[in-house]
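Hey forum,

I'm writing up a methods section and want to include a predicted complex as supplementary material. The small molecule is orotic acid. I've pasted the protein sequence and the SMILES. Can someone with a working setup run it? I'll credit the forum in the acknowledgements.
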Amino acid sequence: MKGYQTEFIELARACNVLQFGQFELKSGRTSPYFFNAGKFSTGRAMATLGRCYAQCIVDSGVEFDLLLGPAYKGIPLGTATAIALADQHGINVPFAYNRKEVKAHGEGGSLVGASLVGRALVIDDVITAGTAVREVLAMIEDAGATLAGVVIGLDRQERGVDQVSAVQELRQAHEIPVISIIALEHIIDYLGSAGAESTELLGAMQHYREQFGAIVDS
Ligand SMILES: O=P(O)(O)OC[C@H]1O[C@H](OP(=O)(O)OP(=O)(O)O)[C@H](O)[C@@H]1O
Ligand SMILES: O=C(O)c1cc(=O)[nH]c(=O)[nH]1
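Reply by user p_vandermeer:
Happy to help. C-alpha cells for the complex are below, copy them as they are.
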C-alpha cells in the first residue's frame, strides 16, 4: 500500500469513520457497515485528508481543469483537496460545489464557487451503486462541461446497475479514470488482522458481499 493509503486508513480508524451495525444506503441497500466521512471533523483530520486526496490525484496523472465536490460530503473534501493541491504541490485549481436544494434568492441557483467549465474532476467520499456520480454527471453536462474523472476515498466494490462494479461501469461508460484511495478489500484485510472479535463482522460483510458485491471487481 502507498503511504497515503495507510495514512487514510489510520485516520479513518482514529476518527471512527468506519461504523458497524445496520445502515440504509442511498441505493436502498441495507449494509452491515458504513463509511461515515462526516466523522472527519477536525481541522487536522481535514488537512490530512486533503493531502491524501491530493497525493492520489497527482500520482494518477489525471488531467483536469477544476475540482467539483458534490453535496454534501463532497464539499469539504473538494475544498480540502484544493487547498492541499495548492499548498503541497503548487497546483492552484478552481473548485466548485452544489446545493441539494436550489437557492431562490441572492445569487440563486445550485452551483457555488468556480464556473463549471472545462474538465471537472469529481471529489467524493464513497461509491456504492454509482447513483451520486450519475447525478453529478448530469449537472456537469447541463453546464456544458465534461467529466475528467472521479476520486473517492472508498470504493465499496458493489454492483452498479449490472454485475460489474459501479466503479467499473463508470470507467467503461465514460472512458474516465475512477480512482479510489482504498477499497472494501482493504477494510476486510484490516478486520481479518484485528483478531477473533471481528469474526462476526467479517461474516456479516461476507453475507452482504454475496448479495451486492461486484462479480467482476474494480
Ligand atoms: O454510489 P451511490 O449509491 O450513489 O452512493 C454513494 C453516495 O451516497 C452518499 O451520498 P448522500 O447524498 O447519501 O450523502 P451526503 O449528503 O451525506 O453526502 C455518499 O456521499 C456518496 O455520494
Ligand atoms: O451508499 C451510501 O449511501 C453510503 C455508503 C457509505 O459507506 N457511506 C456513505 O456515506 N454513504
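Some notes you might quote in the supplement: The first strand starts at residue 18 and ends at 24. Helices lie at 3-14, 43-60, 74-89, 131-142, 166-174, 184-193, 199-212.
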